[in-house]
Amino acid sequence: MSLTRRVLLGLAVAAGLAAPALAQDKPFITVASTTSTEASGLFKHLLPDFTKKTGIEVRVVAQGTGQAIQTAKDGNADVVLVHDKKAEEQFVADGFGVRRFDVMYNDFILVGPKSDPAKVKGTKDIVAALKAVEAAKAPFASRGDDSGTDRAEKRFWKEAGIAPKGDWYRELGAGMGQTLNTAAGMNAYTLADRGTWLGFSNRQDLVVAVEGDKKLFNQYGVIAVNPGRHPHVKAKQAQAFVDWLISKDGQATIAAYKIGGEQLFFPNAAAGS
Amino acid sequence: MEALGAAVGLILAGDGELLSIVGLSLRVTLMALALACAVGLPLGALLGISRFPGRGAVIVLVNALMGLPPVVAGLLVYLLLSRSGPLGDLGLLFTPTAMVVAQTVLVLPIVTAVTRQVVEDLWAEYGEQLRSLGSGRVRAVPTLLWDARYSLATGVLAGFGRASAEVGAVLIVGGNIAGHTRTMTTSIALETAKGNLALALGLGIILLGLALAINGAAFALSAAARRAAAA
Description:
CATH architecture of chain B: Orthogonal Bundle
Number of helices of chain A: 11
Helix content of chain A: 40-55%
Radius of gyration of chain B: 20 Å
Strand content of chain A: 15-25%
Distance between the termini of chain B: 46 Å
Number of domains of chain B: 1
Number of helices of chain B: 10
Number of strands of chain B: 0
Oligomer: heterodimer
Helix content of chain B: over 70%
CATH class of the largest domain in chain A: Alpha Beta
CATH class of chain B: Mainly Alpha
CATH architecture of the largest domain in chain A: 3-Layer(aba) Sandwich
Mean pLDDT of chain A: 90
Order of helices and strands of chain B: HHHHHHHHHH
Radius of gyration of chain A: 21 Å
Order of helices and strands of chain A: HEHHEHEHEHEHEHEHEEHHEEE
Shape of chain A: globular
């Protein structure tokens, strides 16, 4: 039957084409992390070094912090590297993670249009700035995706005593980069992490409006997933990655990552918590 | 213009990363297409020539599934392959295999639905003849498929288009892991997120070029085959 033969031949060819991609011989771990670390280019700078030293390939799935933690809870990652300390500690307390370590920090910034309708440019107090944005009903783009940045933004609104609502407050349900694209398109204010901002090329009229508030501190933590909970995780390789990140060597590699001369992440590993 | 420059620059540079991304995209899409054809062609043909209670409902369902949103297909496959899901032990989530599965789910209804329609029409026309030659319904399937090959090619190409263009499903089940599950479409999404709009559009132009090349090749092949058949 010539048709059957053709179909079989096609299948065989396709299988042959797919085979190299499906081969999995090198040891690897899967890291669930945030869009900010991926979009900023940090992993591209960091991972080849680690892989060269240990032979372990690191596969990063970049998601919002909430989703990344869920991915790890479901056993679909060996390590989580995210930025919501409270949620991370809960993750460990619930038995999903081995132990949490501080890795590095950077800071959040409020970016907004050059025209600055809320008159907050150059100020330092993030809570006061958000009050001004609300008072001016200036467009504000919110991530709205339960990411670490989104959770930080919600905290600041709460501190300001405002439940943001109305035409000016636009919840996007998008990653950091997409949100910056949208904010640039509609000249809106938005809270961003500095790493993504520095790596972002479509700023149009957006500039940094508010920075330097202590509250804007953005801590990243790393946790190996507990093999007691998910026996299939690669506990040894995962721990090797965590250990390297907080080692002198790993910390120096993080510090060395710069865009346009500006350092994106500041290593601050100490004792775990 | 800048995007076109980016596209040309990427191609001229013969960038290894780009090549591996293009390679993975093609491998995943073609594999999914082959699987969908292996199941969808005979399935659609059988559906076209058989008569059974509830057949109308099945046809409506298959036709409706052509509109299955890629994100939903991705989510279903994700839940299936997640370590906490029924097939979690296979460890297939975030692998190219998972992407093939998700895209097969997307392409299968298209191939099945188009095949069903084409074969049904053909059967209405020649069914009497085939039966008088002593061919049973099931035994007529290969003949019908072969006779309808030019019309079916359009359905297969539509399936290819669906698979190569979608980003929602492969992003969810593949994870857009650099060097492992990053395809043309997930790269475009990532570069857009980084604000590298020219590069993103450049990648889009390359993807479009690939689709043009494949459709052109299919067109030329079918024209050559028709000529050979006529000669």
